[in-house]
Design a protein that fits this description.
This is DUF559 domain-containing protein. With about 210 residues, the chain is an alpha+beta fold. Helix content is about 55%, strand content about 20%. The two termini are about 40 Å apart.
Length: about 210
């Protein structure tokens, strides 16, 4: 979608700046946490304080939230930049904050070797900003609570067959319960097919509440 919409320098930046570390973040952290890429913009262009332009690895723009996500490789950011470039990076980050941006930074090593930790940080952040929307949910039934707990402990998305195997429900009942939980924003669809959602994950806010007990 972004390739199709961009031209000139913005398109070049997306092709050249969006590399292995960014792809790994999408695969191992973002997708596992949310299951879609709504509101996420790779290599997002912002105006800097000198009236020039800079690019953020990922911008998450949702309602009034402006979240900048940066993936930092140790060699690139720690060893090969000059002192003036290091200072410039700090000034850049300060101006993003002044302009109303929130910032999350992940090292390449953590994205590669500790993606679950990165995922939890992301979920905690999103839960903080959108948790209020979930507070109005109807109370969970016993079965819904147990399915949320089962999904959380599994640490991955679940299918209707998983629910049937664990809770001894018929397939039709498992699909119905999961669809109802999806409508209540307790779950999100993960890897949806054309005709039927095949797998479900915890909604970020629900996962955040469970992480925090």
């Amino acid at each position: 979608m972004h390739y199709g919409k961009r031209k000139g320098e913005r398109l070049r930046r997306l092709k050249e700046g969006h590399g292995h570390a960014e792809h790994l973040f999408l695969l191992q952290v973002w997708w596992k946490a949310l299951g879609d890429f709504k509101h996420l913009h790779p290599e997002y262009e912002v105006k800097d304080f000198r009236d020039g332009t800079r690019f953020i690895d990922f911008a998450y723009l949702r309602h009034s939230l402006k979240l900048a996500i940066e993936i930092d490789g140790y060699n690139t950011h720690a060893n090969t930049i000059s002192r003036s470039q290091f200072s410039d990076q700090l000034v850049r980050q300060n101006h993003l904050v002044i302009d109303g941006w929130k910032i999350l930074r992940f090292s390449y090593d953590d994205v590669k070797n500790r993606p679950r930790m990165c995922e939890q940080i992301l979920l905690q952040f999103l839960g903080k900003y959108f948790g209020e929307q979930q507070e109005q949910l109807v109370e969970l039934s016993y079965v819904e609570k147990e399915i949320c707990r089962f999904t959380f402990i599994a640490g991955k998305s679940i299918s209707p067959r998983d629910v049937s195997n664990v809770f001894r429900f018929e397939a039709k009942k498992s699909r119905r319960i999961l669809q109802e939980m999806l409508a209540k924003q307790l779950l999100i669809s993960v890897g949806a097919g054309q005709q039927r959602i095949k797998r479900y994950g915890l909604h970020p806010t629900v996962a955040n509440r469970m992480v925090n007990g």
